[in-house]
Amino acid sequence: MSDNKILKRSEIPVEHTWATEDLYVSDAAWEEDLLIMAEEGKACAAFAGKLNTAEGLYNFLYTDEMAGERIGRLANYCMRKGDEDTRNPVYQAMNGKFRSEMVKISAACSFATPEIMAIEDADLERFYEEKPELERYRRYLTNARRMKEHTLSAAEEKL
Prior knowledge:
Blueprint: H1 27-45, H2 54-84, H3 89-108, H4 112-118, H5 121-130, H6 138-145, H7 154-158
């Protein structure tokens, strides 16, 4: 007969656990990065009304990409820590803090999709010529702009 005992986290050999320390060495380091993420959200929001130039569009997309990398690390850490023991309120609260910050950032940056959709095709092609670094985002922009007819206005997106 097999032993179906559910092991405590402390009873599981470390080689069978997530290496969350590869993401953040401590919860305090995660908290510090969460504050940086909030600032990056504000930085992205500052681009509202400025995506109609090659420089503005590139700077926004680059800032958004860098913030996305941090967001991925933050999400993975708090979710993995929460999954280790779903009864642990510390990590459930951490997950809630992360999600709350993401809602704020999403609302603050809701201008981006309508502004990107508003760029005329000819202008976007000109942007690629003016700012060759934008080529890095061509595939993203092409895929995003396919949804143009299904995109709401800036006010509706913010809701």
